Amino acid sequence: MARRPRPYSEQDFEDVQDGRASKSEQKRHVQRMAALAEQLAALPKKQIQKLPVDERLIDAFLELESISSFEARRRQFQRIGKLLRTEDETMLLSFLVPKQGAKKQAQLLRWVDRVIEQGDPAINEFCKLYQAADRHTLRQHVLRYQRDTQKQIDEEELAKLRQNIVNYVQQVALISE
């Protein structure tokens, strides 16, 4: 086995620190998107047609009604999940959040604030309450937010990072129902 010509440096780990997702995290994201697809498929036909998404995605949702085979539905949900990857998560969640109700939404926003302020203890408690939550993913989102807060990054970037945490918490809550 060849030796590494130089020792590891900070530059070798920049991609990981900059938020590039690991392969496992990417797979979990795909699973969350498939679960999101199942939630969106439960919407009435009129609401599905109002979704501001690609026409192929709307057609894929409408095709689900005619599919009766379990395996074919599973493949269709995977296809929909793949198409959802290019869509805006925040916008899609906005269609599902009213289904949860204002009280549940306020509770989730309190969880987001608590997780950001308290860190690991709150993350562990959230993961116990919501079984679909992945501790590592949530922790990475929170650590990125806290790191950028300490670096005093602009407010727009911090708002974007906080929205990522909100989206993740909402997805987990929807999947856990």
Automatic annotation (TrEMBL):
<keyword id="KW-0699">rRNA-binding</keyword>
<keyword id="KW-0694">RNA-binding</keyword>
<protein>
    <recommendedName>
        <fullName>Ribosome-associated protein</fullName>
    </recommendedName>
</protein>
<dbReference type="InterPro" id="IPR023153">
    <property type="entry name" value="DarP_sf"/>
</dbReference>
<feature type="region of interest" description="Disordered">
    <location>
        <begin position="1"/>
        <end position="29"/>
    </location>
</feature>
<dbReference type="GO" id="GO:0042254">
    <property type="term" value="P:ribosome biogenesis"/>
</dbReference>
<dbReference type="Pfam" id="PF04751">
    <property type="entry name" value="DarP"/>
</dbReference>
<dbReference type="GO" id="GO:0019843">
    <property type="term" value="F:rRNA binding"/>
</dbReference>
<dbReference type="GO" id="GO:0005829">
    <property type="term" value="C:cytosol"/>
</dbReference>
<keyword id="KW-0690">Ribosome biogenesis</keyword>
<feature type="compositionally biased region" description="Basic and acidic residues">
    <location>
        <begin position="17"/>
        <end position="28"/>
    </location>
</feature>
<keyword id="KW-0963">Cytoplasm</keyword>
<dbReference type="InterPro" id="IPR006839">
    <property type="entry name" value="DarP"/>
</dbReference>
